[in-house]
Amino acid sequence: MTKRVVKSEELVCGQKPGRQSAHERTMAMNLGLALEDMAVASEIYRRAKEMGLGVWLPL
Predict the structure, then answer these.
(1) DSSP code of 52?
(2) Are the CB atoms for 55 and 23 separated by under 8 Å?
(3) pLDDT 10s digits, 7-59
(4) Segments making up each domain of the chain, as ranges
(5) What values do phi and psi take at 17, rounded to 5?
(6) pTM for this predicted structure
(7) 8 exposure class (CB count in 10 Å sphere: 0-12, 13-18, 19+)
(8) Using CA atoms, how far apart are residues 43 and 32, in angstroms rounded to an integer?
(9) Distance, CA of 18 to CA of 54 (rounded, Å)
(10) DSSP states along 4-51
């Protein structure tokens, strides 16, 4: 198993690729301020919407 460590800001800025196949897994360690999460959330949502990704979950 290959291990890659990529920071979320590297993914958002396009500096490093995300998953490259359906067999890869993602593990996130969210340490820090909720403000940081909210700062990138809108960009992640925008990109996912552009790419037709994501699933609506009933609440």
Answers:
(1) T
(2) no
(3) 888 888 889 988 888 888 888 877 778 888 888 888 899 999 999 998 888 87
(4) 1-41
(5) -80, 155
(6) 0.43
(7) middle
(8) 18
(9) 15
(10) ----HHHHHTTSS----STT--------S-HHHHHHHHHHHHHHHHHH
